[in-house]
Design goal:
The chain is 11% helix and 46% strand. By secondary structure, the protein is mostly beta strands. Bound molecules: copper (II) ion. Copper (II) ion (CU) is lined by residues 80, 91, 114, 116, 165.
Length: 165
């Protein structure tokens, strides 16, 4: 009887998990209504600048702003946006942060928004994890680990016009 109950409970749990509007997969981080999807970075040498990419999904009813980030792996972290105008790529610091709209999502990805890890203290090699804390305007923060890899997760091809530092 108890075994049957356990099986039934498992089925209910599985069903309720599947019904969640935001599916999480390995490498995702949850913070309230926010999901930080598959943070990753690229191999880089000590003293160079590293990058941080991920997607922030906001399932909540109010916008949330990613204000800043910090890490022990670099001297400083800035939020940047790359853009291309007339064939020239440039990037700008986003000192006011980046707004994640209610019920929306923002991708930090090559060619667009990204974290810039200024002056890495040690080399980042493929397969390593780089801890980064993301700070939001509602006072909440979450530590994620950037997976150091050569290609984006999900088999996404990197867009043309790579962003170099
Ligand atoms: Cu940058």
């Amino acid at each position: 009887m108890s075994r049957l109950f356990a099986i039934a409970l498992t089925a209910i749990l599985a069903a309720s998990t599947a019904a969640l509007p935001t599916q999480t997969v390995a490498g995702d981080y949850k913070l309230g209504a926010l999901t930080i999807r598959q943070p990753w970075s690229r191999p880089a040498q000590a003293g160079m600048n590293g990058v941080g990419f991920f997607t922030v999904v906001n399932a909540g009813k109010t916008p949330v702003t990613l204000k800043s980030a910090e890490t022990s792996a670099a001297g400083k972290v800035e939020i940047h946006q790359s853009s291309t105008a007339n064939g020239v790529m440039s990037m700008r610091r986003q000192d006011n942060g980046v707004v994640i709209p209610a019920g929306g999502q923002v991708a930090f990805a090559p060619g667009g928004y990204h974290l810039m890890l200024l002056s890495l203290k040690t080399a980042q090699a493929q397969g390593q994890k780089v801890p980064v804390t993301l700070l939001f305007d509602n006072g909440r923060k979450v530590q994620v680990e950037l997976a150091v890899q050569l290609v984006p997760p999900n088999g996404q091809a990197a867009p043309a016009g790579e962003h170099h530092h």
